[in-house]
Structure to design on (189 residues):
């Protein structure tokens, strides 16, 4: 799915309410993806110029193991839920790498404060993780619908617009969505 540079569907139709209605089933999910991507700025600021790498396989596996266990409790397929969160992690790293490159090229744009990754940033990510798991459960009918992909496209465009994502974060959002409509997120047997 590609929506780089996309405007919300309402900009291209005479029925903006209908476009918003089509997207509404998945917009809570894509809004959380966008929110999580904006937190990547704080993650990058916390790590930039330190020995903390962008890639943290141990932490990433902890997150994936946690969401698999929580998915099972919610009646979601754990492997499919892990795939969605793997996409979130990769999208977040894409944004972090982009910010590092920007800050290396333009030192005047580097963050002036370093947020505490453990005390300030991870609690926000943990809250979003819980909300994402709930949203995955709540959006089950929309995600398994044959119209999921076009609805996801519209929802992502609305979220990008509503969160005023720049090109880097828009690319992150594009990376965050591939597993949403895979049909693999059906309830666990």
């Amino acid at each position: 799915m590609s929506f780089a540079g996309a405007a919300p569907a309402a900009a291209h139709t005479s029925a903006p309410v209908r476009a918003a209605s089509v997207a509404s089933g998945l917009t809570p999910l894509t809004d959380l993806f966008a929110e999580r991507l904006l937190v990547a700025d704080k993650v990058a600021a916390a790590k930039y110029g330190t020995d903390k790498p962008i890639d943290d396989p141990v932490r990433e596996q902890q997150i994936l193991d946690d969401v698999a266990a929580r998915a099972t409790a919610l009646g979601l397929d754990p492997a499919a839920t892990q795939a969605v969160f793997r996409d979130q992690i990769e999208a977040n790293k894409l944004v972090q790498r982009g910010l590092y490159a920007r800050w290396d090229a333009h030192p005047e744009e580097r963050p002036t404060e370093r947020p505490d990754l453990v005390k300030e940033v991870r609690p926000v990510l943990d809250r979003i993780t819980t909300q994402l798991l709930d949203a995955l459960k709540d959006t089950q009918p929309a995600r398994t619908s044959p119209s999921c992909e076009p609805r996801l496209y519209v929802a992502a465009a609305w979220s990008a617009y509503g969160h005023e994502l720049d090109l880097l974060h828009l690319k992150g959002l594009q990376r965050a969505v591939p597993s949403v409509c895979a049909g693999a997120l059906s309830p666990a047997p």
Q: What stands out?
A: The two ends are 29 Å apart (CA to CA). The helical segments are 16-24, 27-47, 57-74, 78-105, 117-138, 140-143, 148-162, 167-176. Residues 3-23, 184-189 have pLDDT under 50 and may be disordered.
